[in-house]
Amino acid sequence: MGYEVDLRALIDRELDIGFPGGNELLDFSDALLGSKKSELDTSRLALSESLGPEAISAAAIIAATFTKNDRVANGTGIPAEPRMMEGSDDIRELLGLKKYKSAINTYRHM
Amino acid sequence: MSLYDDSTYPVRKDIEDIHADQFDQLKTPGTWGTSEQRLTIINEARQSAYHAGTLEKPTNPGIVPNVELSDVARRVVKRLAIAPKDMDQKFYNQAIEDGLTDSQYVEIVGLVARFTCFDIFARGIDIPLRPLPSPTSGPPSQKRPKEAVIEKAWVPTIPNFPEGGEISKVLFGPWQPYIMRGLSLVPDEFTAHFDLEEVQYMPSAHFLEFDYQHHEGLTRPQVEIVAARVSALNECFY
After folding, report:
1. Do A56 and A3 reside in the same domain of the chain?
2. How many interchain CB pairs under 8 A, A with B?
3. Are A16 and A58 found together in one domain?
4. Does residue A52 share a domain with residue A94?
5. What is the pLDDT of residues B83-93, one digit of tens each?
6. Are A65 and A84 in a shared domain?
7. Looking at the 3D structure of chain A, how many domains does it have?
8. Is B167 on the interface with A (CB under 8 A)?
């Protein structure tokens, strides 16, 4: 699509992710899971100005969905399927995913 | 009046309808918990989040039943609600050792995951948490699928067909990944979780179409940015 996306911005908020609305989406996600209501209000306004009011509902439902899925995955100890692991080693390394406590649920089967 | 009438941001009708249905289902008993116990679990999760500052207490929280949860149930609810990154097998094993059954544990995981989802959504669109409904009496169904076995998760799961038998064909179709089957020890929790996924993330039939857009306000790459960041914050490897 012609964008130079920097995936490291997903874990390093000092970096620019390089995708339209991406930084506003990251700020909104952080604030939505965080404890500062004022930051949430500020990030919601910035996201609405950047991508429009529909983006608020859409980003909120995606964040909500993944808060659900993360609890299901981390709470039941499921492993990632082999097909998900294939070819994803570099990106899991880049993003530091192997350091998560939940990583053992997959690696104990490999 | 519909569930999200007070939102200034547009909410798709299919999202509003499924959330309203799942709030409504709280009025009836679950598989292992009564209606009152299930409402108490959700209220306990909310209390933990208020205390942590990650949810704002609404002026009308709805009905809060006067049911005492066991210490182990409260411990599991609290950890799931505010520190899902700290869940590990030792914590699960201790919960079982302290008296929860594996089925009760899975029902708690499903309930807390789904209602945290609804509460985070409400916070995201800047409306108060929806009030909890009044419980009705009645016993839980206590139906445990005999096909559930220990595969690769901590908890028993129903395998995909053919190992999972007829129930797996009915619940899963040809195949489902662990992120769906993780709750299958309690089939009603699996179904509720699966139905939300189809509406909230995208229909699974479109999952591999990378230019498919399910949400008016966000392209697929923008959806994945939010998904990846949230999972990073929750330290979810899956």
Report:
1. yes
2. 255
3. yes
4. no
5. 999 999 999 99
6. no
7. 2
8. no
Instruction: Give A14's contacts (C-beta < 8 A, 6+ positions apart).
Output: none
pLDDT, tens digit, 9 for 90 and up, residues B163-207:
999 999 999 999 999 999 999 999 999 999 999 999 999 998 898
Contacts of B18 (CB under 8 A, 6+ apart): B195, B196, B199
What pTM was computed for the model? 0.97
pLDDT band at residue B210 under the 50/70/90 scheme:
confident
- Asked whether B157 and A72 are in contact (CB, 8 A), the reply is no
Residues A34 and A22 in one domain: yes
User: Which residue bears the tokens 């699966």?
Assistant: B194
Task: Specify the pLDDT at position A1.
Answer: 58
Tell me the residues of chain B between 32 and 51 that have a Cβ less than 8 Å away from chain A. Answer: none
Cross-chain CB nearest to B109 (options A34, A37, A75): A75
Range of the domain at A27: 1-78
Q: With a cut of 0.95, is the ipTM above it? A: yes
Same domain, A13 and A55: yes
Of B54, B51, B44, B101, give the one whose Cα is nearest residue B74: B44
pLDDT at B207: 83
